[in-house]
From TrEMBL, chain A:
Gene3D superfamilies: MetI-like. InterPro entries: MetI-like, MetI-like_sf. Residues 59-244 form the ABC transmembrane type-1 domain. Pfam families: BPD_transp_1 (PF00528). This is ABC transporter permease subunit. The keyword Cell membrane applies.
Automatic annotation (TrEMBL), chain B:
Keywords: ATP-binding, Nucleotide-binding, Transport. Residues 6-240 form the ABC transporter domain. It comes from Fusibacter paucivorans. GO terms for molecular function: ATP binding. It holds the Pfam family ABC_tran. This is ABC transporter ATP-binding protein. Coiled coil: none annotated. It comes from the Bacteria. PROSITE patterns: ABC_TRANSPORTER_1, ABC_TRANSPORTER_2.
Amino acid sequence: MMNKVKNILWPLLFGIAFLALWQMGYVHKVLDLKPFQLPVPLEIVQTLHANLPKAIKDCGVTLSGAFIGMMIGSAIGFMIAVIATIFPKWGYGGLIIITAFNAMPIVALSPIMNLYFSTGMAQKIGVVTIVCMAAMAMNAYSGLNTLKPYSMDLMHSVAAERWVIFKKLRLPNCMPNVFTAFKINVAASIIAAIISEYFATSTAGLGFGIKDNLRKAEMAMGWSYIVVASLAGVLIYIVILLLERNVIKWHASQR
Amino acid sequence: MSETQIQVKDVSMVYTNNAGEKINALDSVSLDIKEGEFISLLGPSGCGKTTLLRIIADLLQPTDGEIIIDGQSPRDIRIKQEYGIVFQQPVLYDWRTVRRNICLPMEIMGVPKKERTSRIDEKLDLVGLKDFGKKYPFELSGGMQQRVGIARALALNPKYLLMDEPFSALDEFTREKLNEDLLEIWGKTKSTVIFVTHNIPESVFLSDRVIVLTPHPGKLAAVVDIDLPRPRRNELRDSPEFFEYVAKIRKCFQEVKM
């Protein structure tokens, strides 16, 4: 219990100290920045407070795109992992191609998606989908195939069919890896959604807000969007953690 | 008790290792096992005892020779789900509680739900884990986990019980207790048991016959009938007859150059 308190207290104190130093101008001194280049925390909070409804609306646009894209991308990635497991010979090659997709920069991907989709939302979902496929495919494949010694023999000894082996052994065995992929994809999907909005035709979303305000030198407004984006990322991450704790409470990572 | 049930005919197994050398794990082993018999495959590591067990279980195909069980192939027996196997490791699925681990093969075999529950209760009691049914494997010690693995195999009431060094990871006290328990259980079920071990006293205590295997290549060196009265209790381990058998088997290994 004491340790738990300590685990929360130290990062919290550090965060508060950092914000205080930033507010008092020390961060600017160290990094040689002027307040109009990097606004101080209080100014950001005030701006955010004044523009809260718009910020939340933009945040909703970005997050819903990120979330839908992450779900579609993760689902496709998982399907690829399943196919690679069922057909090991070509499946493995398929996985390598997926990793190549992962190396594609979002900056290059966004204009291509603009050609395919006319709305900003669809374009965003398209970008996020591609970004999220690889992490899920690689992790899920590893979970579906890295089985403990003899666990397959146990199945064979009672003549279990392939589908039963998949359902009762491979699938539960890969859940920890699926959650790892989700945790990677939460961060990746929000970043991908924001960056894709830089290139989109639409005028909504956190990415557009950050770009537009920084361009107009509305630094405090731009930064308040960044705050919202970070908070949203942390929030979704926590939801995934809670879900993980419930679904794989048997796993070493949860003890 | 006298009918030959499992015939092992000239079974050989040759592996090729990474360096491309051929390794003779089993060299033309022949053996007849009677119905309801308790036999041990005894030998040091590398003698092919586990290999032979896996071939009988149809988890491995021999490079030569064949095995006939009640006129059928090991594959037929496996498809008919008549094997119960206890592995060297507990092989518990981490995401299932103790009860649900024992339940797993029965689910696959389509044992009715009521029947499953009563068999789980019975076997948990038998291996002394009555209060641990709802625990997850990680909450159990290694010895307890292995006992769950044994309960899982026993719950199938298998016609053929194959055990691959099931007690080798346990301490001497637990091992001796479980030896006694195993005999008691076997007395009730009358399965045919093939028990792999490298422990001479254990093989003498448990078996009707001890099959002595020697390594490089894995060969059948001797078959020793153990004519000790049943039911056997742990006191038997202190009797002169018991020591005689242990000494006799130890001699088998000394005679063969290893």
